[in-house]
Protein backbone atom coordinates (compact mmCIF):
# COMPACT_ATOMS: atom_id res chain seq x y z
CA UNK A 1 0.00 0.00 0.00
CA UNK A 2 1.52 3.35 -0.96
CA UNK A 3 1.39 6.61 1.02
CA UNK A 4 -1.52 8.01 -1.01
CA UNK A 5 -3.64 4.91 -0.34
CA UNK A 6 -2.85 5.09 3.39
CA UNK A 7 -3.69 8.80 3.42
CA UNK A 8 -6.98 8.09 1.64
CA UNK A 9 -7.91 5.44 4.21
CA UNK A 10 -7.03 7.89 7.00
CA UNK A 11 -9.13 10.61 5.33
CA UNK A 12 -12.14 8.29 5.15
CA UNK A 13 -11.72 7.25 8.79
CA UNK A 14 -11.39 10.87 9.96
CA UNK A 15 -14.43 11.89 7.90
CA UNK A 16 -16.53 9.12 9.45
CA UNK A 17 -15.31 10.03 12.95
CA UNK A 18 -16.13 13.71 12.35
CA UNK A 19 -19.60 12.82 11.10
CA UNK A 20 -20.28 10.71 14.19
CA UNK A 21 -18.81 13.27 16.59
CA UNK A 22 -20.32 16.19 14.68
CA UNK A 23 -23.77 15.06 15.69
CA UNK A 24 -22.83 15.78 19.30
CA UNK A 25 -19.87 18.15 19.22
CA UNK A 26 -20.13 20.14 16.01
CA UNK A 27 -17.24 22.03 14.53
CA UNK A 28 -13.52 21.92 15.09
CA UNK A 29 -11.87 24.79 16.94
CA UNK A 30 -8.18 25.58 17.40
CA UNK A 31 -6.86 27.40 20.40
CA UNK A 32 -3.41 28.65 21.20
CA UNK A 33 -1.98 29.66 24.50
CA UNK A 34 1.07 30.14 26.63
CA UNK A 35 0.50 27.73 29.53
CA UNK A 36 0.99 29.42 32.91
CA UNK A 37 4.28 28.55 34.54
CA UNK A 38 6.11 25.37 33.63
CA UNK A 39 4.05 22.40 32.50
CA UNK A 40 5.31 18.85 32.52
CA UNK A 41 4.49 16.22 29.90
CA UNK A 42 2.37 14.42 32.53
CA UNK A 43 0.30 17.56 33.16
CA UNK A 44 -0.30 17.95 29.42
CA UNK A 45 -1.38 14.28 29.28
CA UNK A 46 -3.81 14.84 32.18
CA UNK A 47 -5.24 17.91 30.47
CA UNK A 48 -5.68 15.95 27.20
CA UNK A 49 -7.34 13.06 29.04
CA UNK A 50 -9.78 15.48 30.70
CA UNK A 51 -10.76 16.77 27.26
CA UNK A 52 -11.80 13.24 26.30
CA UNK A 53 -14.11 12.88 29.31
CA UNK A 54 -16.03 16.14 29.00
CA UNK A 55 -19.54 16.04 27.51
CA UNK A 56 -19.13 19.37 25.70
CA UNK A 57 -15.67 19.19 24.15
CA UNK A 58 -13.37 16.55 22.75
CA UNK A 59 -9.66 16.91 22.24
CA UNK A 60 -8.62 16.24 18.66
CA UNK A 61 -4.86 16.98 18.54
CA UNK A 62 -2.33 18.83 20.65
CA UNK A 63 1.05 20.32 19.90
CA UNK A 64 3.30 21.72 22.63
CA UNK A 65 6.78 23.10 23.07
CA UNK A 66 7.21 23.10 26.83
CA UNK A 67 10.66 24.71 26.67
CA UNK A 68 9.15 27.76 24.97
CA UNK A 69 5.87 27.59 26.90
CA UNK A 70 3.65 27.29 23.82
CA UNK A 71 0.74 24.99 23.03
CA UNK A 72 -1.77 24.65 20.21
CA UNK A 73 -4.70 22.29 20.52
CA UNK A 74 -7.48 21.27 18.18
CA UNK A 75 -10.80 20.67 19.92
CA UNK A 76 -14.25 19.62 18.80
CA UNK A 77 -17.20 21.47 20.29
CA UNK A 78 -20.52 22.97 19.30
CA UNK A 79 -19.13 26.52 19.33
CA UNK A 80 -16.33 28.79 20.53
CA UNK A 81 -18.15 29.66 23.75
CA UNK A 82 -18.23 25.99 24.77
CA UNK A 83 -14.47 25.71 24.24
CA UNK A 84 -13.86 28.95 26.18
CA UNK A 85 -16.04 27.77 29.06
CA UNK A 86 -14.15 24.47 29.23
CA UNK A 87 -10.77 26.22 29.35
CA UNK A 88 -12.05 28.54 32.06
CA UNK A 89 -13.37 25.56 34.04
CA UNK A 90 -9.97 23.88 33.73
CA UNK A 91 -8.16 27.05 34.82
CA UNK A 92 -6.26 27.17 31.53
CA UNK A 93 -5.81 30.61 29.94
CA UNK A 94 -5.91 30.94 26.17
CA UNK A 95 -4.81 33.52 23.64
CA UNK A 96 -7.34 32.73 20.94
CA UNK A 97 -10.01 30.27 19.84
CA UNK A 98 -10.66 29.99 16.12
CA UNK A 99 -13.30 27.97 14.28
CA UNK A 100 -11.67 25.86 11.58
CA UNK A 101 -13.17 26.08 8.08
CA UNK A 102 -10.63 24.02 6.13
CA UNK A 103 -8.51 21.08 7.20
CA UNK A 104 -5.37 20.04 5.38
CA UNK A 105 -3.42 16.84 5.75
CA UNK A 106 -0.33 16.18 3.62
CA UNK A 107 -1.52 18.39 0.80
CA UNK A 108 -5.15 17.25 0.85
CA UNK A 109 -7.37 20.20 1.87
CA UNK A 110 -11.07 19.73 2.53
CA UNK A 111 -13.86 21.36 4.53
CA UNK A 112 -13.43 20.77 8.27
Q: Descriptors for this entry?
A:
112 residues, alpha+beta, Alpha-Beta Plaits, four-stranded antiparallel sheet, two-stranded antiparallel sheet, 3 helices, 6 strands, disordered N terminus
Give the strand content: 25-35%
Number of helices: 3
By CATH, the topology of the domain at 26-101 is Alpha-Beta Plaits
* Sheet of most strands: 4 strands, antiparallel
* Name given to the CATH architecture of the domain at 26-101: 2-Layer Sandwich
Which ranges are low-confidence, i.e. pLDDT below 50, for 5 or more consecutive residues? 2-7
Distance between the termini: 26 Å
Chain-averaged pLDDT: 77
Task: Give me the Rg, rounded.
Answer: 15 Å
| H/E topology pattern | HEHEEHEEE
| CATH secondary-structure class of the domain at 26-101 | Alpha Beta
Amino acid sequence: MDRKEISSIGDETRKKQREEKGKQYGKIHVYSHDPPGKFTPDQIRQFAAAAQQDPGVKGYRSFANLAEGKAVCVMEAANKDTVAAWFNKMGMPYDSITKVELEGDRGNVQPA
